[in-house]
Amino acid sequence: MNQIAIVILNWNGKDFLDKFLPSVLKYSGDARIVVADNASSDDSVSFLKEHYPSVELVINDSNGGFAKGYNDALKQIKSSYYLLLNSDVEVTEGWLNPLMNVMKDPKVAGCQPKVLSYQDKNRFEHAGACGGFLDHNYYPFCRGRIFEKTEMDTNQYDHEMEVFWTSGACMLIRSEVFHQVNGFDEDFFAHMEEIDMCWRIKRLGHTFKIVPSSKVYHVGGGTLSYFSPKKTYLNFRNSLYMITKNHEGLLFFKLFYRGVLDGMAAFMFLLSGKPNHFMAVFKAHTAFYGKLSTMLSRRKILKQSSTTFNETGLYHGSILWAKYFKKIKEFNKLNMRFFKD
Q: Do the beta carbons of residue 79 and residue 170 sit within 8 Å?
């Protein structure tokens, strides 16, 4: 069994593979490089066979999105560690060693590097930035990114620390732990599935870390634009899925309050001339209620199987209040007393 397998999930991403696979091959030592193709309709597979015969190929039968695509592929890959890597990521020299060093601590289930923008290499990228957190209403944010606002990287977050979640754009995870929790929830399809998985793993007492001494550059929005109504739909729906499954307290009140906040967000979309995003929020809630019984069943199973929940990375304040009322745009300006140690 190889110690680490770098697994790149690809869907119609031949151009990204052509551009970024060389950096992965150049800077990844003797790690296995695997491309898991999610039933692409472009010439990705033939391109890989012709130009990169040393790269292993796993071909999925259908495009089940990020979640099912990785679940199906990783069942076929035997390795101690999986490095899940988006196809639109450029890696850098020496990127793997700092990540692997952190994994020497058996409590650490997974970690991520510093994720910077490929277009602006001195700015954090939206998908993970410098480690992920959740506020008390379970809105995700990062060191270096609050909602859509990303910060310039001035080395202000260059220390390792424990976080609540790590980015699916580039995540190193123990294969044993991944399979122990049955990987990603396939009902998510894409977006926030890694946060849900990290949450479920933390319910077993494990930890996640950010390792800024390793850095990568991410294009972002390569498969689905950050400004797409479909992304809005997936984010709002999947957030409700995640809360229903994992929230520790009284669920009804939390869902009711999130529903109010989501309704306000929907009308903000409408007032700002984005009716498609307004409808996306409405459709997200409709889809959620159609799956509510399924998510409640999963909630029951999780409550029975959880042992010690590791709450580190929860922000016991409102990131909405911080951004829109206190006008805070930078992570290090938040009230640090609100973070759970």
A: no
Q: Is 179 left (phi over 0), alpha (psi -120 to 50) or beta?
A: alpha
Q: Whose CA is closest to 76, among 96, 57, 63, 48?
A: 57
Q: What is the pLDDT of residues 255-313, one digit of tens each?
A: 999 999 999 999 999 999 999 999 999 999 999 999 999 999 999 999 888 777 888 99
CA distance readout (Å), 237 to 222, 266, 284: 21, 13, 4
* Closest by CA position to 209, among listed 175, 159, 169: 159
Judged by DSSP in three states, 313 sits in coil
Of the candidates 150, 156, 148, the one whose C-alpha atom is nearest the C-alpha of residue 272 is 148
Cα–Cα distance, 11 to 256 (Å, whole number): 37
Name the residue among 215, 236, 66, 235 with its Cα closest to residue 144. 215
Please tell me the distance from the alpha carbon of residue 100 to that of residue 84, in angstroms, as a whole number: 14
- Do 40 and 119 form a contact (C-beta atoms < 8 A)? no
For the segment 14-61, what is each residue's pLDDT rounded down to a tens digit?
999 999 999 999 999 999 999 999 999 999 999 999 999 999 999 999
- Angle of the 229-246 helix axis to the 251-271 helix axis, nearest 10: 170
Q: Which residues contact 283 (CB under 8 A, 6 or more apart)?
A: 233, 237
- In contact, 155 and 122? CB cutoff 8 Å: no
Query: What is the domain partition of the chain in residue ranges?
Result: 2-112+158-210, 229-308
Tell me, yes or no, if the pTM score tops 0.85.
yes
Distance CA 144, CA 153 (A): 8
CB 86 within 8 A of CB 167: no
Please give the helix or strand (H or E) that residue 97 lies within, else none.
helix 96-102
pLDDT of amino acid 247: 94
- The CATH class, in words, for 2-112+158-210 is alpha beta
